[in-house]
Write a structure and sequence with these properties.
By secondary structure, the protein is mainly alpha-helical. The chain has 9 helices and 5 strands; from the N terminus they run αβαβββαααααβαα. The radius of gyration is 23 Å and the shape is globular. GO terms for molecular function: oxidoreductase activity, acting on a sulfur group of donors, disulfide as acceptor.
Length: 236
């Protein structure tokens, strides 16, 4: 193999140094822009006094719910983390039956496995208080929604959650009670649920087709109606 000349090695070294310098310059600029946007949102959060609340009425095995949470909700939250709070209600088009002995039974749109997944989701939502971790965990669960227990084990290892508390909740009557409450919140919607997921922004159903297609733009519209236009929304 022919050895590189000293001049060739020098040129390669200079090239590597230039690439490294360009990378760090780009990273510094990106970090600066992120910090500016972050500080901008904190200021708006102080002005608004409360975040925009996104309420997601969904099902653990629903493909449309999966698509919305993974693609729309995570994307919108990543752009406006200081201005968004999220509520999850895993129930959808299920039904609740109170048996003669007072016990609860459920029928879910995608069968018993979905009821199992819905209960795990409800327990996780109650247990996890940090919005970002809660969103990441629910998104992780719903990506692999064919086997809720397997997804729960995998996502519990990936994220810092109290897996023991969530599992105990799922295995107890409390888990079923949480699913019943999620159902009561779902049935209380006006107009009633016709499509899953149904998503509310600050308690309003607004334009569901737009929300499901471009949640971020709709959240920016809500903020604009309040007289707020964060930097992240300026190019909408």
């Amino acid at each position: 193999m022919k050895r590189l000349s000293g001049q060739a090695r020098y040129r390669i070294l200079v090239g590597l140094i230039v690439i490294i310098l360009v990378y760090y310059a780009y990273k510094t600029l990106s970090d600066y822009n992120s910090r500016i946007i972050h500080e901008d949102q904190l200021e708006f959060a102080r002005i608004k006094n409360s975040p925009v609340v996104i309420s997601v009425f969904y099902e653990a095995l629903c493909p449309d719910s999966k698509n919305f949470i993974v693609k729309q909700l995570k994307s919108a939250y990543s752009k406006l983390p200081n201005l968004i709070e999220i509520e999850f209600f895993a129930y959808g088009k299920a039904t609740t039956t109170i048996e003669k002995d007072g016990s609860l039974s459920f029928q879910c749109q995608h069968g018993p496995t979905e009821c199992e997944g819905n209960i795990i989701h409800c327990c996780a939502v109650e247990s996890i208080h940090d919005t970002e971790i809660k969103l990441d965990f629910i998104a992780c669960m719903i990506r692999d929604n064919g086997n809720p227990q397997k997804a729960f084990q995998r996502c519990s290892r990936e994220y810092t959650v109290d897996a023991e508390t969530i599992q105990k909740c799922y295995a107890s009557l409390h888990g079923k009670e949480l699913l019943k409450i999620a159902g009561e919140n779902t049935h209380a919607l006006n107009p009633p649920v016709s499509f899953i997921p149904t998503v509310l922004i600050d308690g309003q159903q607004r334009r569901q087709a737009t929300i499901l297609r471009d949640l971020f733009a709709e959240v920016c519209a809500v903020l604009s109606e309040s007289g707020l236009t964060p930097k992240a929304c300026e190019n909408i």
